Amino acid sequence: MSPNHDLKAAIEALLFVADRPLNIKKIKKILKKWSIKDIQRTIEILRQDYQSPERGIELVEVAGGFRLQTKANFRSYILSLKQKPPFRLSRSALETLAIIAYRQPIARKEIESIKGVDVSMSLKTLLKLKLIKPAGRKKGSSAFLYVTTPYFLEVFGLKDLSELPPLTDFSDEI
Amino acid sequence: MESLKVKLEFFEGPLDLLLHLVKKHQVDIYNIPMALITEQYLSYLRFMKSLNIDIASEYLLMAATLVHIKSRMLLASPQEEDPREEITQVLLDYMKVKDMAEVLEKREILHRDVFVRYGIEEVIGEETFIFPTAFDLLDAFKQVIETARVSDIVPKEIEVIHVEDKMKEILNVLQNEPEILFERLFDEATTKAEMIATFLAILYMAKEGIIILYQISPMAPIHIKRVRAPLRKPHLELI
Question: Of A29, B26, B109, B205, which is most buried by a Cβ count within 10 Å?
Answer without folding.
Answer: B205
